[in-house]
Amino acid sequence: MEASENTRFSGLNLRLRALRLFSKIAPWYFLTMTTIALALGVFVTAPELFKKSPQTLYRHYAAVGYLLVNTMWNYIMAVRVDTTYRTLPKEVLEYHRRKNTIPYRCHRCKLCQTCIVKRDHHCFFMNTCIGYYNQKYFIWYCLYMFCGTLYSVITNAMYTSRIFGTKFTGASTFFVLLPATVYNWWFYNVSSIEVVFVSLMYNALIAGIVGIGFFLWQFWLASAGLTTNEAVNNIEGIDKGLMENLRDVLGKYWLLGALLPIYCPPSGNGIYGNRFGELERDEDSGNKERCNGDTDRAQKKKK
């Protein structure tokens, strides 16, 4: 029995190490691919596509610059904004320190090794947890990443069609284009540059699908007053109505934050329930269980 427990612990420890390593590598992958795609788009793709119309080229540069600035601003803010328990009011921290508990909706991340206020999930491509103070930046980042990758897919498709004669007959083209390009490059005289552009187009396509998927999921969670943990485990969240739920996550001036790279402070402080972050339906034992297990033991919805 003891040997079985040791094996299970070793396996869990190995899994955590692998996840931490991936969490450190993933941001560099994102930054590298973004830099490569941007450089090719600015210096190769756009000049070739719009060389006969300088005004159109400058408009495209302006659009790319706007998408890039907003994407990187929200990325940096999501990474840099502190969303740990240290951001809570001092009286709340002292209260829970005396009781050996944590506020409602706070969770400990095993990868970040700290307690996160209203923790939603750990983002590997940011190497940080998404919580109360940076969730809005993560949502807008996903939206702008989708717009940027969609633009990249369209311009790369136009470029490969003009330069390499690639034919796009619809969405089904993407099921065979990359395998066919690699096959022709390996066995026939196909340019390596063509393989690079097709690969980048696929990378942008996958990133765009992931980005819009996360945006829709996170926006739905925000509108419903839920976190990922609550939605997946059918745990009751905090539903204040559609507009109040969105304002709680996106802030009072959410439209400015969505359109411009500016700092928009949250409308609250991440405390739910009473002023100490406790729900009236919770008992002391339940709060301590959440603290000791680093999990949220809020009552589940009644069927």
Structure commentary:
It is a single chain. With about 300 residues, this protein is mainly alpha-helical. The protein is about 65% helix and about 5% strand. The chain has 10 helices and 4 strands; from the N terminus they run H-H-H-E-E-E-E-H-H-H-H-H-H-H. The strands form 2 sheets. It has a two-stranded antiparallel sheet with strand order 1-2. A two-stranded antiparallel ribbon has the order 3-4. Helix 1 crosses helix 4 and helix 4 (about 135-165) packs antiparallel against helix 6 (about 190-225). The radius of gyration is 23 Å and the shape is elongated.
List keywords for this structure.
303 residues, mainly alpha, two-stranded antiparallel sheet, 10 helices, 4 strands, 63% helix, disordered C terminus
